Amino acid sequence: MRSAVHPLASRQHIRQEIRQRRRALSQEQQKHDAEELLIRFQQLPCVINANHIALYLSNDGEIDTQPLIDWLWQQGKSVYLPVLHPFSKGHLLFLHYTPNTRMKLNKYQIREPILDIRLVKPVNELDLVCTPLVAFDNTGQRLGMGGGYYDRTLNRWHNERLGPQPLGLAHDCQQVDSLPFEAWDVPLPEIITPSYHFTWPV
Question: CA angle 86-143-108, nearest 5°?
Answer without folding.
Answer: 35
